[in-house]
Amino acid sequence: MQKSDLNRVNKYLWEIPKSYRKKMKVPVRIYASEKLLKNIFEDKSLPQLVNVASLPGIVKHALGMPDVHQGYGAPIGGVGATKFPDGLISPGFIGFDENCGVRLLKTSYSAEEINKQVENLATEMQRRVPSGVGTGRDLKFNRNELDKILRRGVERLVEKGYAREEDVENCESSGRMKQADPSAVSDEAKGRGEDQLGTLGSGNHFLEIQEVDQIFNEEVAQEFKLSEGQAVVMIHTGSRGFGHQVCTDYLDTIKKAVGKYNINLPDKNLAGIPLNTSEGKRFFKAMSCSANYAWSNRQMITHFVRKAWKSVLGKENLKLLYDVAHNIAKVEEHVVNGDKQKLIVHRKGATRAFPPSHPELPEHYKEVGQPVLVPGSMGTSSYVCVGTEQSKETFHSVNHGAGRVMSRNAAVDQFPGQKVVKDLEDRGITVKFKDYKGIAEEASGAYKNVNEVVKVVNKAGLSKKVARLKPLAVIKGE
Asked: How far apart are CA 435 and CA 211, in angstroms?
């Protein structure tokens, strides 16, 4: 594919027409600046989006966010919707880390007030929140209790004393997908999930102590109760081994069932099946369990972060601004060709950005819109944005982060871990980690510039910048 294959719609929007390939059912639209488009051409994300645009039942267009990059089957930073209930649902268009997501905790402290305690806070947070591939914690839920959490999500944790009512209110979907059915989940997945609630995982997952560095929209910032100089905590992780196993189990099931339903796919890794089939219904129930597990995981981490802050500072008062998912499929209503339709919206490495007055928002955000959380790469800024009406063009979706520009192996070769840590410490950023390899893999040079990525969605009107956050301490998941 070449740039000449794309039509430029406006300064930040490009289109691959349906005529590009015979089997395409809808066009592809990519939100990107000229600079970011160059990065996008360096991998297979555009051909993968063309494959998405060829899926049975897809409507309107397949979408690439400015952080889009090559993934398994579908690109990370991809969005697409299929007709409900007979459109496809695809594990490969959700991702192995089902409901990986981000939440932001507001504190009552200024960054200046905690300046001398940042090191101690980071150490205590790392101590209380285990991380790493396969790592669990001493707190282990039995199968009966785990099933209740899988079914009911964060609201069950309120009853167990690990969450507050306001945590439920400020979580996407109130921290629960009601379609969840633990009977659709394998024993192996449950076994992997028994001791991993409240753990960080690996890869690009992290805990960060941050400072609100700049306010762009005073009115919305006031509604969000964010102010310049305020200390906040960002949590980025997902459903751990539980969600990975659910995805693995159903990829195998669905790949085998494709022939049964005479589905013609452009890529076997994009395997999907109609939602209204027995296999499709079971996968949706299991994926919903993964979503509830991930919201509960981030909630348990919140519980232990609160304990860490109270241990170090004597009090915590950490309040949840919002929690958003970015690897998920949900049934939502959207307008297509002038008609309101129920759709199966896939967001893989993309997050929702609902506008003011949307019925799924908590009452206190309905006047301003949904908080949109965009984490940066390690050592760079993160952003709080707000959803807009214009995001209806993307099924109310935006990017989920900065987006990789090189593989983890390439990053290890190019960015020595010791140098990455020194550079961060020279900038006054505390770093907690287990080994230098994990640090090298997540070096900021392996990612796109988050400022450029956020500029695109801001200029395109899909979300509006509210605040920029700069890191004070990074607790690396590995």
From this structure: 26
